[in-house]
Amino acid sequence: MIARKRLSASSAILAAVCLLAACASTDYLPVRYQLPPAAADLNGKQVVLEVIDARTRESIFDPSMQADFRHFTGNFALRVARGDEQGMMVGALDLKGLFREAMVQRLKQAGVAVIPAPAGAAPLMTLTLTRFDLRQDSLKWYADIAYQAELSRIASLKATQNISGTEERLRVPGSKNLEKVLGDVFTTLINRLDLNRLFASAHV
Q: How many structural domains compose the chain?
């Protein structure tokens, strides 16, 4: 009798896990961000980090994807990885939170501390998100992302970099390839920002 109860409980748990896995791809989007190799070039520097969403279209999905992702909550499950590891789960984040947390991790990897509010001569780094589009056709998934990074100590002295890119993957049933293409382009574009040049150009 006890064994039967244990079997029933295990079956219920398994069913719940399967149900969660079935709907997870439409409730939220997993994003795996892979950090670049650690560097000490900017050790000891500090910034205040601000993220601005300046996109002209609120939805991240092309109209052809709206039905498939109608249950999307607007949240992303971010994993931060070093090397080929699966990565550490950071949590559920909205789009601005996704960019902020990934850049915090990138800055930390370069030796830069992100502080919560202006302190002394700490410069302001602003990430302005201008495009975050996911689309599909009969054969492929596409992810298209663009943002501007600006670093300034005073209003008259600013350094700016514009970063953009598109990735594509063959489309298969489910969303695994979409998650792969999104993680790849997100990693590429966060890591494409040249922090050394940005800090040098802003004389920080």
A: 1
